[in-house]
Amino acid sequence: MAQVTFEEISASDFFYRNRDIAGFTNPTRAIFAAIRELVENSLDAAESLKIPPEIYVRLSFEGEASKESQIYKLLVEDNGCGVPPRHIPSAFGQVLFGSKYKLKQQRGTFGLGGKMAILYGQITTHQPATIISSTGMSRIYMYKLMIDIQRNRPIILDRKVFLNKEGWRGTVVEFSLEGDYLRAMPKILEYFKQTAMVNPYANLTFVDPKGRLYKFTRATTIMPDPPKETLPHPYGVDVELLQRLIQVTPYNNMLEFLKNHFHRVGEITARKFLEFSGISPSKNPKRLSHEEIVRLMHMLKKFKEFLPPDAGCLSPLGEELLKTGVLKELKPEFVAVHQRKPATYAGHPFIVEVAIAYGGEIPQKGGFLIYRFGNRIPLLYDEASDVSVKVINDMNWRRYKVTPDMPIAIVVHICSTKVPYKTVGKEFIADRPEVRREIANGLREVTRQLQRFLTRREHVDRERKRLGVFSKYLPRIAEFSTKLAGKEKPPDIEKLLRSVKRFGVEGI
Amino acid sequence: MAQVTFEEISASDFFYRNRDIAGFTNPTRAIFAAIRELVENSLDAAESLKIPPEIYVRLSFEGEASKESQIYKLLVEDNGCGVPPRHIPSAFGQVLFGSKYKLKQQRGTFGLGGKMAILYGQITTHQPATIISSTGMSRIYMYKLMIDIQRNRPIILDRKVFLNKEGWRGTVVEFSLEGDYLRAMPKILEYFKQTAMVNPYANLTFVDPKGRLYKFTRATTIMPDPPKETLPHPYGVDVELLQRLIQVTPYNNMLEFLKNHFHRVGEITARKFLEFSGISPSKNPKRLSHEEIVRLMHMLKKFKEFLPPDAGCLSPLGEELLKTGVLKELKPEFVAVHQRKPATYAGHPFIVEVAIAYGGEIPQKGGFLIYRFGNRIPLLYDEASDVSVKVINDMNWRRYKVTPDMPIAIVVHICSTKVPYKTVGKEFIADRPEVRREIANGLREVTRQLQRFLTRREHVDRERKRLGVFSKYLPRIAEFSTKLAGKEKPPDIEKLLRSVKRFGVEGI
């Protein structure tokens, strides 16, 4: 018989073996992914304190690795909340350890990206990473560490403590990694540009290996409210979650249990639901049998009267900001923006914001220009698999008299306490029917506005042509008639021209 | 200051929270993914013993879950190698535990799919899974278990041991899950069809919830050699791997270390490499410093004289089998197949096999029909992001006089000790340059053959037309001339017709 051996591997080892699924496929993708993951952690760290982010990224050349890749040193510094000293080693040297496992809108969702970057650096250069951090208290902590991949534990090589005389707060991460910056450059610059577009309150500085400085300066210091942590919505619970809540609840009756552990369930809704499902309000949740828990889950999904999730915990861009961003970056002739009402998939609230822009500096390229964002992260890879692209492809554009050869850009932003990414590398968003529907409805709304604009412009064009004919021939007719009548001053044809104008066509 | 809390989550908890990345996005995808993951484990289990697989899958309706989904019971039985009793609980109830963490061509790569299916069943129905297995020895073991998701450990609810009087060997997995079979049906049936196409030695039986029986009977009992476990190729090592090898090696000199731990490195190659990199053959690998290990890795990648990986450890389909499969399933007018020589990416050997089929029953649909396989697994989702599709889209088809409106089907099969999937759900393959190149070269080869066929067919068509004219008018001319000459029997025009034939056109 063949020998089949069984073994257990650590989470760290799993991602080491399968770095493709975290976006670290090759030296080009790896350097892009490393920068992006660290920048996003930095943005989250600053926003959690409602501080305008100040992020400095420096990539410097260290040497040749092979014909196709080089060794770089990457440094990312932020003015975020900092990491408490006792958590620094695990937060940077242990996979599946972190602060991101909350129901809260944030860029990071897997608590994985930063560590993958450090892990990738380690397996390609075997250099330790240096982390410097302070929460703004009296000390600054510096750790040099590597990851014990087989045991998924940080190895601390050095630790220093400094006095924080100037009250600095933030985090610096520095490590070496193999990469191909030349190939990655276009995507990296596009990443910074699009990040600046949807985070107009952030200062981003990037110094590339040639010493070129890219600076994206904030346009405002007004910060959106930081997203709040939220309770699970009853439509999204599964048996596992119910069991966990029952385990930890301090409440010993169903009424209080429902009111205190679920999003937007108050006294009245809770009572109505309990009546609907035939559960006594005084029933102790800890006494529910397996079967009763399963039934409770199904009833929660069936009950029609739960309020939709509250957008209060989400922090969308807002129509104004989105419009400003699009006008600034794309300089179109026309733009329409629309923010959908909050919706929910699997109990996670989400908001879709869309924009459609036409003409101006938007190139005509035989297809729409598509910008995708998830929780203010630009998504730059695997466009073809994204739910937005599927919706765009499926839409009946002809109905709106829109064709792919028009100079059109489409922006879709999805913000949620949990964006349903299809890959750990956050390249694209899964095709959840609820998300699809919201995108489609949003797109229809802005496209109708575009259609009205185009129709109006067509009328105006026709009118302009019609008036053109009048204004071309009327003076000649007037001149001819004047001569014919033996007069010297031709009649005032301006009045006549004005009287045939049907629209407020300017410039004629 | 905002409260940031840090926590550690288990691997099981990670995949529970992020089931999208494992393919369990919605009730439709979940039921497809569950069937597929278990069937693939079963195929691997039978092939590891070189036994023609005999797989029985039954999905039965249990009740309504909601408007859009139902509860089903899924049972998958195989005649594979079985699981040793002491490993059963962890093999089915603990994420990142398994027998798939080897350098070996197999369908499963993440050791995750079967457990994700059981985990998904548990969180949607809260029922335990039943596993029955025997390695063919004197006992059959039955376990009822659930997964403790927070601790990533199996919970054994029941355990029974039976005498194995009839020497049965194999595994039965049975559990309940929520799903939407009606929507998933087309993909599930397509999955079985395509699996049968590339596993012609397997018997597959599927009984669907309506009691419909789908039977895919084997066409041969000849089995390919089971893929062998292999050593890492020097081009694919990273520092982590070198360190692990150094940790476990019993050899105390570099020459033996290289010869015994790397794929296709013999005495001569090892000596040449050591000279090239200036390392003494007698150097003890355990004495290498960090810097020396990093240097060793770079030197291994730079050395040009390592032999390419040996295809012996891979088990491709072979051109004959691929051709048979395509002819049987697609019934085309023409087919060309090509197997590329083994290549390597990141040290993993891989073989690309491609086929192009034209005409016959292949529909004309304004685009090519694309079939993708990885280690004999049909890949049915997220086609647009797959490397094969990218290559197909980038190819200069006009050069081969091929246009997308022709009835053409393309098959790409990649087999490797590690297929670079982009998602844990194994939906599509990452865009590794080495893989891309092999697919492109393979496609060019078969497309050239198609071009020759098309050119020849065009000539034949033209000839057929030309001969058509002759054969239409010659008899009349002959008849007319006969009458005109006053004769009774017209001359033999067959000879004449044959003399103007330029090609072996049949049927004229």
Write the layout of secondary structure elements.
The structure is a homodimer of 508-residue chains.
Chain A: E1 7-8, H1 11-17, H2 27-47, E2 54-64, E3 70-78, H3 88-93, E4 97-98, H4 113-125, E5 129-135, E6 139-148, E7 153-163, E8 169-179, H5 181-198, E9 203-207, E10 213-216, H6 239-248, H7 254-261, H8 267-277, H9 290-302, H10 319-330, E11 334-339, E12 343-345, E13 348-358, E14 369-374, E15 377-379, H11 387-394, E16 408-416, H12 433-484, H13 493-500
Parallel strand pairs in A: 2-9, 14-16
Antiparallel strand pairs in A: 2-3, 3-8, 5-6, 5-8, 6-7, 9-10, 11-13, 12-13, 13-16, 14-15
Short description:
Two copies of one chain form a homodimer. Chain A is α+β, with helices and mostly antiparallel strands and 508 residues long.
The CATH class of the largest domain in chain A, by name, is Alpha Beta
Q: Biggest protein-protein interface?
A: A-B, 72 and 72 residues
Output the helix-strand order of chain A: EHHEEHEHEEEEHEEHHHHHEEEEEHEHH
Helix fraction of chain A, binned, reads 25-40%
End-to-end separation of chain A in angstroms reads: 91 Å
Spatially, the strands of the biggest sheet of chain A line up as 7-6-5-8-3-2-9-10
The CATH homologous superfamily of the largest domain in chain A is called: Histidine kinase-like ATPase, C-terminal domain
What's the assembly state of these chains? homodimer
Sketch the major β-sheet of chain A: 8 strands, mixed
Average pLDDT figure of chain A: 88
CATH architecture verdict of the largest domain in chain A: 2-Layer Sandwich
CATH-derived topology of the largest domain in chain A: Heat Shock Protein 90
Helix/strand-derived class of chain A? alpha+beta
